[in-house]
Design goal:
The chain is an alpha+beta fold. It folds into two domains: 39 residues; 25 residues, no CATH class. It is 32% helix and 10% strand. The protein is built from two helices and two strands; from the N terminus they run H-H-E-E. The chain has a two-stranded antiparallel sheet. The radius of gyration is 21 Å and the shape is elongated.
């Protein structure tokens, strides 16, 4: 089965079967590699700028009025968060 750029790769089913047999240490290492691969594909979301919706530049920390009551967070936060 071809992988990235035609390189041979293990079938996903085989990888999935191996996961329960891995130690915690090996799972952590695999997870880091998978995250690194995703970041290579579409960028590291931890490093991308986020929109800050309030003048204080501290979203999630200030009160605002929503539906007639004072709530904490950005007024752009979803209800219940």
């Amino acid at each position: 089965m071809p992988g990235f750029h035609g390189d041979p790769a293990l079938p996903l089913a085989l990888i999935a079967q191996a996961i329960p047999k891995l130690s915690r240490h090996d799972l952590e290492a695999l997870t880091e590699r998978l995250i690194d691969r995703l970041d290579t594909i579409d960028g590291d979301t931890d490093l991308e700028e986020e929109t800050d919706w309030c003048e204080a530049r501290d979203d999630g920390c200030g009160p605002h009025v929503s539906r007639g009551r004072v709530v904490w967070g950005s007024e752009h936060d979803e209800e219940g968060f």
